[in-house]
Structure formats: structure tokens, C-alpha cells
Design goal:
Elements: H1 3-14, H2 31-34, E1 42-43, H3 51-59, H4 62-73, H5 91-106, E2 113-116, E3 119-122, E4 132-135, E5 137-141, E6 146-156, H6 174-191, E7 198-205, H7 208-211, H8 213-224, E8 228-235, E9 254-256, H9 266-275, H10 282-294, E10 305-306, H11 319-323, E11 328-332, E12 346-348, E13 351-353, H12 362-381, E14 387-391, E15 400-405, E16 412-421, E17 429-434, E18 438-441, E19 448-456, E20 468-469
Parallel strand pairs: 6-7, 6-8, 8-11, 9-10, 14-20
Antiparallel strand pairs: 1-17, 2-5, 3-4, 5-7, 9-11, 12-13, 14-15, 15-18, 16-17, 16-19
Helix pairs in contact: 4-6, 4-12, 5-6, 6-12, 10-12
């Protein structure tokens, strides 16, 4: 069920335009999930892509994505421990090629895109039996209005076989994760000639399979320089629409969003739990934002939000950004086929193992790229999410009084309050507030979940910020 249909269904039940279904028949239309029966504000509608974003969509090319993945597979292995100097095989040759391509894209940017290859030597550690240089390729497209505000998209360069420290075997890594690198590179090519308001970073990172080393290096580099990263997406295993049982699912893309941040203070965590904010971390607000701007007829994708950090006991390159205090989510295909992931290339009992390019759906990857494009472009052209948002808890009342730090900038036109029933996964209603820094909404904070978002002069709206007592 899309977010638009879900919101419409909730509104119908709240207004009692349709009868409540029997218990257990549809959790999305039960009266309890739709309480309170009020209509403060108007129904929230998804943000439609404007002409420029539609033009970006039209330039995303499955054939170019095919060519990128094919080239990355051709290096034989991209294992982090493989050769850094062989011109044809190994992670060194693959990284050099990605850098060269990114520089080609940057040449079209009129000086607005800079390509760097930050690196460091990782000492002996888990899955690192000898010191090895970790190199990331980072293409930074400078924002035209707020260049100090960053959004990051990444895929990881490295690949692996069954044995995580076997760097000799062929490890094509077509899905995991040439597909993610292809998305970052294709978007870098297309957006290089454009002028987003905020800065967008297109990154290919190394060392993911050995322990998220490249993304950790990038996240810590940003944190140490006090870079204002407002959102990060990793694309990891986004190349196949076919499950291990042969089921085709070409129009769904999972987004994983962490709940309560592990970096917030103990006192803040206790307050979050007390006021029921566990489902309203910045990562989950970012995921809701993605659904609102990228689940539409232009992308042709549904985006189920998975309310957890990652797959069970597994990790990805968004985690180091979260651990650095940034907001980050992970995109992953709907059904992973583990015969084609972290496997030696072989045929066993009639089953083909290995992460081979023949299992990649390039049209699917192109749609994933559209989801990323919608998210990045909408974020970078919207105002920044409101900061220091609080709700007044000093008075007992049946309305809700909010305050936030208003920004006097070139992008912001005003602010809106979003709300939803406490059992609802997505925002359902929006209340215009004006270009102010305080507002009262005639709805009790005890009964619903609120968020405050900024709205731009261009119509782009930011992710919402969950208010804490203040």
C-alpha cells in the first residue's frame, strides 16, 4: 500500500466514510489506529517531482548502469586486500577507473564538482591480516545556496568470496556492490551539470566487507572537520529483483532506518522513551521523507520502511555515519539471494553460486537510481530541517505549543506542523504555521505524534523534526 493510499484510507476511517472492517482484517483501517477522530489541518499529499527532477529521471540510463557494472566485474576481484598496483585486476585498478570516470563527470560541472581520493593505511585488524591502504573516491558537487550543508550517497567498491580474507579468488561482486557504485556514479554524471542548493556527495568507498573501514574513514573525516552532513544513503545490494525461489519483485526497494540513536545521551533516551518518540528518530524521519518524495509513478517504486538499523546482526556503510552522529539509511533490494552473495563462483548440485552479472536487473537498478535521485535532489533543494524543536510541557492543556530555531535564509518560506495517530507509520496531516518560530496547534500532544518541517520558497519541504519537551 502506497503512502498516498494509506493516508486516504486513514482519513476515510477517521471521518467514518467507510465502515470499520472486522478485527484483524486490515490493521491499516481499524478505528483504533485512526483515533482521534479530528481533522486539524489537511491531508498530507506526497511531493510530486518538478520539471528538473523529471529531467534527471529521464537521463538515468539502464545501459550506462550495465556498462559500469560490467566494467567493475571485469577487474576479477575488488577485494580490499587485492592488488593496488596491477593495472587490470584488483581493487587498485577498479578504484583508479572509478576516479577517472568521476573526473570526467566533474569536467562538465564548470568547476562545481571536485573529485578526491582520500586514503589511509589500515593496520592489522579483524579481517585485515596485513596493513592495507583504504581508498575512497569522493565526488563533491558544491551547493549553490548553502554549500556548507551536505548530503551523501554511496556504494562500496570492494567484493569478496566465501572466505572473507581470500583476496585471490574471483569475486565479481556484481550485485554486492557494483550495483550501488553504479547508482552513485550515474547520479554524479547526471547531476554534475546541475546546481542543487545544498552540496551532494557521490562516494565509492572501500573496505566494507572487511569491517566498514572506508565509510568509517569518510564519516570520521567529516565529523572531525565539523561538516554538516544532514543525510546519508548507502546503496548496498540493490541489483536484483529476483528472490532465491525465483519470485520476481521488481518494484519494491527496502529502506532500513534505525530507531533510537545510539549516540544520544542516556537522559535524552529516557525522555524519548517516556514521550513515545522511539519511532521518530532522525533516521526514521528521513525514511518517511524518502517515501513521500520518491514513491510515485515517475520512479514506479514502492519503498517499504524497515524499522531497524539493518538486516539481523548485519551492517552497512550507513552505520559509521550514524555512529558519528549523522542521519543515515540503507537501501537494499527486497529479497536477497544468498547463493549470489559472499560465495565462491561455482556450480554445486546444479545450482549456480557467485555474484555474477547475469543475475543483475539493470532496469531495476535504474529505478533504484531514480529513488535516490528523488531523495537527494529534494533534500538538497529544500530548506534544512528545523533545529531545536520543542513542545511546551509546562502547562496542562489540550492544545500543543511548539517553538523552534527559525532560520533567516534564502530558501525558507515558512514552517508546517505534521501529525499522525500514534499507531500510524507515516504522517497523515499537515498544518501551515507561517514564517514564525512558535505556534499553537489545536490538538493534544498526548494523543498524536507531531513533527515540524520547513517549507521552501520553491515548494520543497524538509524532513520533519520530532519535538522534545522544552
Amino acid at each position: 500500500m502506497s503512502i498516498a493510499k494509506w493516508v486516504q484510507n486513514q482519513a476515510q476511517v477517521r471521518n467514518r466514510q467507510i465502515p470499520a472492517l472486522p478485527s484483524g482484517s486490515d490493521i491499516f483501517s481499524c478505528p483504533a489506529a485512526s483515533w482521534p477522530p479530528v481533522n486539524v489541518g489537511s491531508l498530507l499529499t506526497p511531493q510530486e517531482p518538478d520539471a528538473e527532477l523529471q529531467a534527471i529521471f529521464s537521463e538515468i540510463d539502464p545501459k550506462r548502469i550495465d556498462a559500469i557494472i560490467t566494467k567493475l566485474v571485469s577487474f576479477g576481484t575488488r577485494h580490499t586486500l587485492s592488488s593496488q598496483t596491477d593495472p587490470n585486476r584488483g581493487i587498485g585498478a577498479a578504484t583508479d577507473w572509478i576516479e577517472q570516470q568521476m573526473r570526467t563527470f566533474a569536467a562538465t560541472s564548470n568547476g562545481q564538482m571536485e573529485v578526491t581520493v582520500p586514503s589511509y593505511v589500515q593496520g592489522v585488524a579483524d579481517r585485515i591480516p596485513f596493513p592495507v591502504r583504504i581508498r575512497d573516491v569522493v565526488a563533491t558537487l558544491k551547493g549553490s545556496v548553502e554549500p556548507e550543508r551536505f548530503y551523501v550517497v554511496s556504494g562500496h567498491i570492494d567484493s569478496r568470496c566465501s572466505d572473507p580474507i581470500d583476496y585471490i579468488c574471483d569475486a565479481p561482486g556484481a550485485d554486492d556492490d557494483a550495483s550501488g557504485v553504479a547508482v552513485a556514479m550515474e547520479l554524479a554524471r547526471i547531476m554534475a551539470t546541475r546546481r542543487p542548493a545544498a552540496t551532494i556527495v557521490f562516494a565509492a568507498v572501500a573496505g566494507e566487507e572487511q569491517g566498514l573501514y572506508g565509510s568509517n574513514f569518510l564519516a570520521q573525516t567529516y565529523r572531525n572537520a565539523s561538516v554538516n552532513v544532514q543525510g546519508m544513503f548507502t546503496n548496498d545490494i540493490i541489483g536484483s529483483s529476483t528472490a532465491d525461489d525465483g519470485t520476481k519483485d521488481p518494484y519494491n526497494l527496502r529502506i532500513f532506518a534505525q530507531g533510537s540513536p545510539t549516540t544520544e545521551s542516556a537522559a535524552r533516551s529516557r525522555t524519548r522513551a517516556q514521550i513515545g518518540g522511539e519511532n521518530d528518530s532522525a533516521a526514521r524521519e528521513l525514511a518517511r521523507f524518502v517515501v513521500g518524495v520518491a514513491e510515485n509513478n515517475f520512479t514506479q517504486m514502492n519503498i517499504p520502511v524497515i524499522y531497524r538499523l539493518d538486516r539481523f546482526l548485519r551492517g552497512g556503510d550507513h552505520r559509521p555515519f550514524l555512529e558519528a552522529g549523522y542521519t543515515a539509511c540503507r537501501f537494499t533490494e527486497p529479497n536477497e539471494d544468498y547463493a549470489h552473495q559472499h560465495q565462491d563462483v561455482r556450480v554445486e548440485n546444479g545450482t549456480q553460486y557467485g555474484d555474477l552479472i547475469e543475475f543483475v536487473d539493470f532496469d531495476y537498478v535504474a529505478r533504484v537510481a531514480k529513488v535516490n535521485a528523488a531523495a537527494l535532489w529534494s533534500l538538497a533543494n529544500a530548506p534544512m530541517s528545523p533545529q531545536n524543536v520543542t513542545v511546551n510541557t509546562t502547562l496542562l492543556s489540550n492544545d500543543s505549543q511548539f517553538k523552534w530555531l527559525a532560520r533567516n535564509d534564502a530558501l525558507t518560506a515558512g514552517y508546517e506542523a505534521l501529525w499522525r495517530p500514534t499507531g500510524a507509520p507515516f504522517w497523515t496531516h499537515v498544518v501551515p504555521l507561517g514564517n514564525v518560530n512558535t505556534a499553537t496547534v489545536d490538538l493534544s500532544k498526548d494523543n498524536v505524534i507531531f513533527g515540524i518541517r520547513a517549507v521552501g520558497k520553491n515548494g520543497y519541504a524538509s524532513p520533519a523534526t520530532f519535538p522534545f519537551p522544552g
